[in-house]
Write a structure and sequence with these properties.
This protein is of the alpha/beta class. The protein has a single domain (58-433), classed as Peptidase S8/S53 domain (Rossmann fold), CATH 3.40.50.200. Helix content is 26%, strand content 20%. It contains 10 helices and 20 strands. The chain has helices spanning 6-13, 69-75, 79-83, 103-113, 132-143, 163-177, 196-210, 349-366, 376-383, 420-433; strands spanning 17-21, 27-31, 92-97, 120-123, 148-153, 182-185, 189-190, 215-219, 241-242, 250-259, 265-270, 272-273, 278-279, 283-289, 315-318, 321-324, 331-335, 338-342, 392-393, 417-418. Strands 3, 4, 5, 6, 8, 10, 11 and 16 form an 8-stranded mixed sheet that branches. The chain has a two-stranded antiparallel sheet with strand order 1-2. The protein has a two-stranded antiparallel ribbon with strand order 7-9. A hairpin with a 4-residue loop joins strand 12 and strand 13 (278-279). It is globular. The chain starts with 5 loop residues before the first helix and ends with a helix.
Length: 434
Amino acid sequence: MLSGSPAALGRGLGVTVDDFRAPNGQLFYATRQQPQVPTSLRGEVTGIGRISSYGRIVNDYVPDGGLTPSGLMQAYDATPLESQGDQGQGQTIVFFETDGYAKGDLQGFQKAYKTPAFQVSKLGQNSGSGKEAPMDLEVAHEVAPAAKLVYLNILSGVSSQNDAVIFEDAFHLAATRYKGAIWSLSLGVCEADFSPSDLATMNQAVANAELAGTTVFASSGDSGGLECLDDMLANSAVGVQAPASLPAVTGVGGTALSVANDGAYLGETTWTEPLLSQGTGGGQSSVFSRPSFQTGPGTSSFSSVGDPCASTSGCREVPDVAALADPVTPVADFESGHKVPGGNGTSVGAPIWAGFTALIDTYLHRSGTSPVGAANKWLYRLAASPQKYAPFHDITTGGNAVYAATPGYDMASGVGSPDVWNLARDLQSLLGKS
């Protein structure tokens, strides 16, 4: 544990610790820059998370037990779509899973929160128990209760131990069975585990699915930018995880969310727990060049000699967007027959974005506009310049173990979290002209 006065810590870590006032009037402390590891510790310490008490102020989180369905919708300004009848009808969300779910938990969630009945189809065997799968299904359902949900067990019936083959087979299966569906992947593997050719094949499989209108979200990881920490094939703990690093995929980072007593959005900081080696994943791909869509304020702002992104073109940066992930500020969940706070890192962010996209696609369909499809090119275009309606919450406080949150794009929170109603209207305008 590192402790000391603000002045002493600031001098030792090369930063200034200042006081700030949160939107609700309470004071918090934070640094404006990412702390630097002292030279004498660089052989032992890989990185230091941002120093900040924001999001750790009593009653400055979300209600006890987690955000209810209406609370999550209100926090991210999706209620206007719901009030117009947009509930994800006509949309399909496919969840790529490795564990199972109990039907009784889905029924319990439905009864507890008075949602419509779940519409779940299966591809592969369901073990009947797990934590990830029920959370994913419930989170997306509370956002888009009329959407059809598909549970796809990527390990069911597989004959290969190769992760790339497993992902590729699952991508082809989902693309064939459910053309134009929205995909949610709350899983990932250190990018170094894959060969460049395997990653290219995986990316092409996603891109092919997107030609039919599919949108793909994947969690960016929960190790604070050290996604290769325990990977024997990686040269460094610093790294990103695939599939989030695939250029065709929209990588989702994690935040800690703060709402007012009436449920209104107050603010977000990045999710980071450096003492636990946890936090929002993010960083630079060591394989993919920076795609043409990844432009705008903040992109390619980090480069150093010897870094894989020090080249002229730069490298793919992750994540692209962000959403609630901190277990301290969770969503409501129902597991093992009980209400529980559902906070499992960036795994929550992928189904949140998938559910909101289902709402947006329903809205776009009503207006005669094509679905979002490959999302990154539109998201970065909206973030690159001021829009009629502000589509994102720019997260500028916090960071992960490697990168700081900054104005504009950053490799902890991407372009930010969604203001869903604003994003829907901006996309309608943008896609209607494309």
